């Protein structure tokens, strides 16, 4: 295990709520783990505590087998062997690429070779003598990562590293950074509030909500098996309906669902989470709706559908359909449910 955080809590002076509470985090060698959650949930605080820029109120931190916090122990950031990559790159503006990435290191032949190899891996060869101001945002962020990797830290901590970049560059850089981390067998804790980013880059995701861990799991586990309504809403952008179990059926205001093995829950209230691909346009479907809005996303359309209940109530659902689907705002449409895209909580 590279990182072990045990029962970490931190309350900033003068604030009502702890920024983080009872965090237990373990990260294995070579893993990419994301801390995912909305603004203010404690992501940066957690990262800063692990790096040593913030002191927790209680708990223990062990990095690569060495205790760096707890029971009277406090190791300062410069002796923790962690690399940091921030959203604003934080490169030295007056130093060129090679001087930025070797700053503070002894220029041996091995080190020069390592710099050369890493620059090549990050597709930055040929840019050694450029100043940061002569590079694109994506290039600057790759330089920042290479600078962190030059020191061969036990772990790289990244705080929203792509948030200053536009959407298409962000997607491209995600793939490149993941590939660099995997090829160099680097362990990484990665902070983001973007669920898609977390799902694509991570081996495991830690979902944080108001300073507490909601769920830890692989991207598939978090997406397909959310353990709470918060995770369902935040990670899969699921639509939520209340339902009542009756035999092997769940009745909601808008439709009923046949489900296996719920007899024991007879009469019980549940939440039905229908992910964006869970409601499919189907000419033989029994669910009636009206398309309110359609957004083209390249590979798919994202639509808002107004559903009508038999009693005349309405609710809006967010759905995703393939681009082959004939769909446009204003039309009436019937739908069926894809059971693989449903979670009952
Ligand atoms: N130096 C500080 N002093 C007082 N309160 C702070 C300080 N830094 C953060 N906080 C508070 O602690 C909580 C967690 O903040 P943190 O910066 O860790 O959130 P975050 O998840 O990184 O959010 P974002 O996505 O907006 O960056 C917030 O309520 C924030 O206002
Ligand atoms: Mg933050």
From TrEMBL:
Pfam families with a match to the protein in the record: ABC_tran (PF00005)
Keywords tagged on the record: ATP-binding, Nucleotide-binding, Transport
InterPro entries in the record: AAA+_ATPase, ABC_SmlMolc_Importer, ABC_transporter-like_ATP-bd, ABC_transporter-like_CS, Mo/tungstate-bd_C_term_dom, P-loop_NTPase
EC numbers, comma separated: 7.6.2.9
GO MF: ABC-type quaternary ammonium compound transporting activity; ATP binding; ATP hydrolysis activity
Ranges of residues in domain ABC transporter: 3-235
Descriptive protein name: ABC-type quaternary amine transporter
Organism of provenance: Anoxybacter fermentans
């Amino acid at each position: 295990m590279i990182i072990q955080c045990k029962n970490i809590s931190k309350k900033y002076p003068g604030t009502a709520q702890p920024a983080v509470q009872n965090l237990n985090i373990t990260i294995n060698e070579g893993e990419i783990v994301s801390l995912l959650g909305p603004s203010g949930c404690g992501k940066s605080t957690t990262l800063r505590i692990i790096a040593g820029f913030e002191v927790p109120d209680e708990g223990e931190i062990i990095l690569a087998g060495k205790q760096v916090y707890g029971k009277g122990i406090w190791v300062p950031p410069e002796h923790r062997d962690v690399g940091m990559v921030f959203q604003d790159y934080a490169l030295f503006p007056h130093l060129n690429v090679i001087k930025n990435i070797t700053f503070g290191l002894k220029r041996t032949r091995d080190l020069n070779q390592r710099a050369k190899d890493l620059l090549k891996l990050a597709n930055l060869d040929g840019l050694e003598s450029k100043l940061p101001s002569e590079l694109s945002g994506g290039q600057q962020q790759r330089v920042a990562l290479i600078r962190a990797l030059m020191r061969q830290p036990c772990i790289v901590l990244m705080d929203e590293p792509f948030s200053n970049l536009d959407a298409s560059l962000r997607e491209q850089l995600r793939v490149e950074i993941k590939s660099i981390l995997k090829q160099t067998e680097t362990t990484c804790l990665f902070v983001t509030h973007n669920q898609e980013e977390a799902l694509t880059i991570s081996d495991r995701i830690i979902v944080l909500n108001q300073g507490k861990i909601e769920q830890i799991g692989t991207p598939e586990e978090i997406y397909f098996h959310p353990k709470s309504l918060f995770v369902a809403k935040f990670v899969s952008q699921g639509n939520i309906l209340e339902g009542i179990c009756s035999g092997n059926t769940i009745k909601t205001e808008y439709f009923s669902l046949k489900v296996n093995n719920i007899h024991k829950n007879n009469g019980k209230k549940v939440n039905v989470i229908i992910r964006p691909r869970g409601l499919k346009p189907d000419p033989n479907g029994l669910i009636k709706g009206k398309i309110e809005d359609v957004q083209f996303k390249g590979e798919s359309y994202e639509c808002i559908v107004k559903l009508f209940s038999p009693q005349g109530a309405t609710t809006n659902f967010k759905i995703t359909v393939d681009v082959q689907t004939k769909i446009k705002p204003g039309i009436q449409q019937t739908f069926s449910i894809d059971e693989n895209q449903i979670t009952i909580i």
